[in-house]
Amino acid sequence: PLHDALPICERLRAEAQGLAARPQQNELFLTEFVLGEVQAISSWPEFLEFVQLLKPVYERQPAESNAMLQWTERLAQCREGMGQSEEALKLWRSLAEAAPWTVGWQTEYARRLGQTGDYDGALAWLRQQLDRPIQRREYEEETLRSTMADLYRTQGRWNHLLTFTTEWIARQPQSQSYNS
């Protein structure tokens, strides 16, 4: 029941305060667990309080763990959930720029750009990612291309979609996601 959420939330807050206050073994795992539980039972503003409270845990992690990027993603989700779309878009862009190898952040940023009406910017962003001279897994390239195709469909740019999918098919991809 809903009335049970308050004591649970307070127990989670106490756990979060302990995690933030002192380093512990497996603290990032525990932090993500706490945030997952809080997100399921709280409002966005309350969840944001927990995200901010637990920032020191992310800051203590080695740089190569990219923990601060995880924290930034949580913050972006909060801003979006609270209707702060412009701030969220800036955060999604910072994630996409900081981790160009993370296809999910590339597509998330492009989708968010499209939601603001900047379809040309979204398509240019994805094209830039596809044109990067790096080795990608097949599914990563498919994800980028599928997102582009979705943006063309959303706008009803059928001629662009036809040209784009024709080029995509000419590459002879292993999957047939260009059909969807």
List the helices and strands and how they pair.
Blueprint: H1 5-21, H2 27-41, H3 44-53, H4 55-59, H5 67-81, H6 85-98, H7 103-115, H8 119-131, H9 138-155, H10 158-170
Q: Keywords, please?
A:
single chain; 180 residues; mainly alpha; 10 helices; elongated
Description:
The chain is mainly alpha-helical and 180 residues long. Helix content is 74%, strand content 0%. The chain is built from ten helices and no strands. Helix 7 packs antiparallel against helix 8.
Overall SS class: mainly alpha
Helix content: over 70%
Largest sheet: none
> What is the β-strand count?
0
Please state the oligomeric state of the protein chains shown: single chain
Share in β-strands = under 5%
Shape: elongated
Return residue spans where pLDDT drops below 50 for at least 5 consecutive residues: none
Distance between the termini: 41 Å
Q: Mean pLDDT, nearest integer? A: 91
- H/E element string? HHHHHHHHHH
Count of individual helical segments: 10
Radius of gyration: 20 Å
Could you provide a short overview of the structure?
With 180 residues, the chain is mostly helical. The chain is 74% helix and 0% strand. The radius of gyration is 20 Å and the shape is elongated.
